[in-house]
Amino acid sequence: MDRRIAQWKLGVERVWSAAEPDYGDAARVVDDIVRFSDEAVLRRAASQVLPILRSAAAEDADRITREAARRRVGVIRDVLQSLATPPFGKRETAVKVLSPEQRYRQMLGLPIDGCLSAPEIHQAWKRTAKAAHPDAGGSAREFLELSAARDALIKEVRLVRSL
CATH 1.10.287 region(s) of the chain? Predict the structure, then answer.
């Protein structure tokens, strides 16, 4: 396990397990993740969590903001845990190698071939994200991967149309 990931995980666990979390400290750890993480999923999750942590760190933050910040710290905790824990018990099977674009389409339940529009991609993302969202019982990592797939496909559509 990467030493930085272990340090970040320790910092997030310290905030998570505290009776009265120090959201200023959490914001510093998450800001460090945003700036120095090599993992795209972790960096994206941290960048989405940072604003609510900064709001919760303010002295005049209300209870709802602090509860939302605590849930977001849990998301970062889950992503760090999934990165730090090696996969166990799954044997690789012979799978056809897909290009990144084909894999993104498969994740969103879109056809592997053919042209797509940005609204079609976004609609497919909304449909799959409902089940993958952490508030709906999904995992944070899966939700972030779906969001990254949507962004990559929409970027590709816009790039093709601009040519």
Answer: 100-162
| CATH architecture of the domain with residue range 100-162 | Orthogonal Bundle (1.10)
What residue spans of 18-117 are helical by DSSP H? 23-36, 40-57, 63-84, 100-108
pLDDT of residue 24: 93
Quote the Cα angle for 144-33-124, to 5°. Answer: 10
Burial 14-51 (b: 16+ CB within 10 A, else e): ebeeeeebebebbbebbeebbeebeeebbbbbbebbbe
137 burial level (CB within 10 Å; 0-12, 13-18, 19+): exposed
State how far the Cα of 135 lies from the Cα of 139, in Å rounded to an integer. Answer: 9
* pTM for the whole structure: 0.53
In whole angstroms, how large is the CA radius of gyration of the chain? 18
Taking only the tens place, the pLDDT of each residue in 39-69 is: 888 999 999 999 999 999 999 999 999 999 9
